């Protein structure tokens, strides 16, 4: 594939990913705000998203296999079509919007999100021109993955604002119809622009090959699970409850704070290649990079827990601590996202990326459940201590990841 075609296809994939991400963030905010207006309790609203996270585990595992057999173009657009259907499901009259019904709609939305994410990130590997040198290809892949990942998270934060804005202007049903129609148009355009056989493998993988047999992929996936568990164990339930009950923030302040954090987090991910640029060594990040970042990250929630225990200005501890956490976590997450694609062969990239994001989803689900359990027993301090322990586990897993010197010596 020449450079012009590579850039065009990358731009199409990125635009499609952006469009999908905006709807993903918007539908989350629409559901939270609308069902809060209907009088649902916070626990009931949280339960609406349980299937969204759970089905991410299954989807990422099976999605990689589907992408390898039928093409990443097919799985990406299947995800977009499912998202359109999930949006339309919620346009029924209010009396039909039971908890079970909305959970099913969110399950479809979760499946759609992970099919789209897996397809978009795995596709980038295939767009690097074959004539590019190995070192230049690694740098270009790192840059493209960082931009794709960072922009996605930034736009998810924008999607939170978009959801609230559309709800205020068009109401719940109107907002859903606008999002569904817009995404369907994007689906048609990208289906026409992208090659049909994108990501298909010459030999069709068997269903029994879903689990990776490459040590580096398994260790990286394990590190990813612990890393995202360390974030969600205090970020999903513990932190918003603490902000509203202990610090007395209103819903608008809490929601705005989270949206700004996610946007800044996405910007940092996109800038990771520049922030981690090493002119002296001249190579892209490796296993040592993610281990070092994990060790730094481990200190942040532990320090915050210590400060809160000693009752040191909790508002400043949260704002400053969460800001520093965003920086280091974003860098580590971006490096992970690059390594999973870099270490995958072209014929295995869809399977490996799916397996990797299955571990990511498992970490998020575990962190979400533990966030509520630990906060109920030990408050935010307990969640922060658990976070630090999970990051330590991620650092231990990262010790097993390949280094550049090991790869050059032929041990990888």
Number of strands: 0
Radius of gyration: 21 Å
Specify the biggest β-sheet.
none
User: If classified by CATH, what would the architecture of the largest domain be?
Assistant: Up-down Bundle
Q: Which consecutive residue ranges, at least 5 long each, have pLDDT under 50? A: 406-412
What is the topological layout?
Layout: H1 3-37, H2 42-47, H3 50-70, H4 72-89, H5 99-126, H6 134-193, H7 215-235, H8 238-245, H9 251-270, H10 272-275, H11 287-309, H12 314-342, H13 349-398, H14 404-408
Helix pairs in contact: 1-5, 1-6, 3-4, 3-5, 3-13, 4-5, 4-6, 5-6, 5-13, 6-9, 6-12, 7-12, 7-13, 9-12, 11-12, 11-13
Short description:
By secondary structure, the chain is mostly helical.
Question: Please, could you describe this protein's structure?
Answer:
With 412 residues, the protein is mainly α. The chain has two domains: 1-195, Growth Hormone, Chain: A (Up-down Bundle); 211-412, MFS general substrate transporter like domains (Growth Hormone, Chain: A, Up-down Bundle). Helix content is 80%, strand content 0%. It contains 14 helices and no strands. It has helices spanning 3-37, 42-47, 50-70, 72-89, 99-126, 134-193, 215-235, 238-245, 251-270, 272-275, 287-309, 314-342, 349-398, 404-408. Helix 9 runs parallel beside helix 12 (314-342) and helix 11 (287-309) crosses helix 13. It is globular and about 55 Å long. The chain starts with a helix and ends with a helix. Residues 406-412 have low confidence and may be disordered.
């Amino acid at each position: 594939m020449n450079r012009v075609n590579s850039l065009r296809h990358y731009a199409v994939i990125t635009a499609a990913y952006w469009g999908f991400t905006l709807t993903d963030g918007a539908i989350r905010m629409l559901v939270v705000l609308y069902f809060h207006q209907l009088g649902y309790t916070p626990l009931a609203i949280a339960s609406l998203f349980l299937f969204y996270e759970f089905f991410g585990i299954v989807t990422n595992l099976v999605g990689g296999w589907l992408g390898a057999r039928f093409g990443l173009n097919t799985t990406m657009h299947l995800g977009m079509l499912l998202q359109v259907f999930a949006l339309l499901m919620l346009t029924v009259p209010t009396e039909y919007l039971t908890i079970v019904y909305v959970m099913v709609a969110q399950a479809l939305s979760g499946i759609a999100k992970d099919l789209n994410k897996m397809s978009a990130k795995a596709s980038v590997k295939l767009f690097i021109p074959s004539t590019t040198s190995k070192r230049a290809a690694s740098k270009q892949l790192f840059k493209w993955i960082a931009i794709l990942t960072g922009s996605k998270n930034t736009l998810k934060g924008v999607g939170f604002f978009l959801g609230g804005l559309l709800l205020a202007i068009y109401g719940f049903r109107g907002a859903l119809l606008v999002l569904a129609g817009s995404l369907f148009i994007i689906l048609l355009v990208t289906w026409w622009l992208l090659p049909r056989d994108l990501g298909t493998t010459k030999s069709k993988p068997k269903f029994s090959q879903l689990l990776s047999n490459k040590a580096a992929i398994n260790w990286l996936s394990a590190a990813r699970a612990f890393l995202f568990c360390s974030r969600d164990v205090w970020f999903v339930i513990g932190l918003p409850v603490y902000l509203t009950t202990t610090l007395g923030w209103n819903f608008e302040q809490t929601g705005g704070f989270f949206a700004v954090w996610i946007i800044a987090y996405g910007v940092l991910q996109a800038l990771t290649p520049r922030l981690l640029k090493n002119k002296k060594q001249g190579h892209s990040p490796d296993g040592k990079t993610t281990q070092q970042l994990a060790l730094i990250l481990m200190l942040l929630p532990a320090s915050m827990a210590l400060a809160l225990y000693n009752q040191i200005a909790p508002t400043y501890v949260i704002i400053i601590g969460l800001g520093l956490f965003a920086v280091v976590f974003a860098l580590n997450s971006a490096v992970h996202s690059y390594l999973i694609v870099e270490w995958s062969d072209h014929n295995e990239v869809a399977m490996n990326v799916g397996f990797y994001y299955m571990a990511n989803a498992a970490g998020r689900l575990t962190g979400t459940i533990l966030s509520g359990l630990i906060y109920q027993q030990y408050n935010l301090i307990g969640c922060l201590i658990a976070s630090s322990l999970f990051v330590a586990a991620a650092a231990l897993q990262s010790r097993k990841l390949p280094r550049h010197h090991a790869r050059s010596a032929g041990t990888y």
